[in-house]
Task: inverse folding
């Protein structure tokens, strides 16, 4: 499944990274503690978080994640948007909370071990 | 040590400002770019980036200021991080995963998971951490290039 398909199916708002939405997502990780995400996320994963500050872009870029989904309708900080544009990191917003969205993604074949 | 210095191909020192969360990650990004441009293998770049990011964040979260030095030698990469700050009262306890002294502000930003030092240990081949309470902390780690793709180009000496 690609981020474009995820955005379409679950009504996510795309904030940055339009050009990278066709890449296949390898799996997913959910977490708000950056060191935990650094330790356990894998390349190509989609990352669900409620953190909105620019450091999430640094983490996603470092781990070469497919993109970040801000859950619970949280909007990225202006500086986060700017950095995400600069580093071509897809940033999407879901009105669903992390548990709900992760469950739905799992049902569509995106697992936490990919 | 003297021999290692003779063989040093690259050396650069970065300044880190404590509490500067807006520029957090800037130094590890620069280190990553330097290694990428030098043509190091992806795994080496990733491991060094992770360890450098965590070390940089520790200075930002817990110290007044510090420096991060990157050394590139033919057989290894070495990073030395020195800071002036609160220091660590019990280094062994600090190394324990989950242990953290982070304040609420730091935790709200998603730091203070108590995983930073163990992330550094996991991604490096050697790690030394020493600290004086109320003075500061000294961290060094080494990532071996033995066994990795050794086609490291010559770099001009910086810093």
Result:
């Amino acid at each position: 499944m690609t981020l474009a398909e995820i955005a379409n199916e679950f009504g996510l708002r795309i904030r940055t990274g339009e050009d990278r939405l066709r890449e296949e997502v390898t799996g997913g990780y959910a977490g708000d503690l950056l060191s935990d995400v650094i330790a356990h996320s894998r390349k190509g994963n989609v990352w669900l978080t409620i953190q909105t500050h620019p450091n999430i872009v640094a983490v996603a870029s470092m781990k070469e994640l497919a993109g970040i989904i801000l859950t619970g309708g949280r909007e990225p900080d202006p500086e986060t948007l700017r950095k995400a544009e600069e580093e071509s990191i897809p940033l999407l917003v879901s009105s669903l909370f992390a548990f709900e969205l992760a469950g739905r993604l799992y049902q569509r074949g995106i697992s936490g071990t990919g | 040590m003297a021999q290692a210095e003779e063989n040093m191909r690259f050396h650069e020192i970065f300044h880190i400002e404590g509490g500067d969360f807006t520029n957090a990650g800037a130094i590890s990004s620069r280190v990553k770019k330097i290694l990428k441009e030098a043509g190091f293998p992806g795994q080496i770049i990733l491991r060094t980036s992770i360890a450098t990011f965590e070390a940089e964040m520790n200075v930002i979260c817990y110290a007044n200021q510090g420096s991060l030095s990157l050394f590139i030698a033919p057989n290894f990469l070495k990073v030395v991080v020195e800071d002036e700050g609160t220091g660590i009262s019990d280094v062994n306890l600090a190394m324990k995963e989950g242990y953290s002294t982070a304040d609420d502000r730091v935790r709200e930003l998603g730091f203070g998971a108590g995983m930073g030092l163990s992330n550094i240990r996991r991604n490096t081949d050697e790690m030394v951490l020493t600290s004086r309470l109320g003075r500061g902390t000294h961290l060094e780690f080494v990532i071996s290039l033995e066994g990795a793709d050794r086609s490291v180009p010559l770099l001009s000496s910086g810093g």
Remarks:
- Chain B touches chain A at residues 21-22, 24-25, 28-29, 32, 46, 49-50, 53-54, 57, 109-116, 118-119, 122 (CB under 8 Å).
- Chain B has one domain: 2-144.
- Confidence is low (pLDDT under 50) at residues 153-159 of chain B.
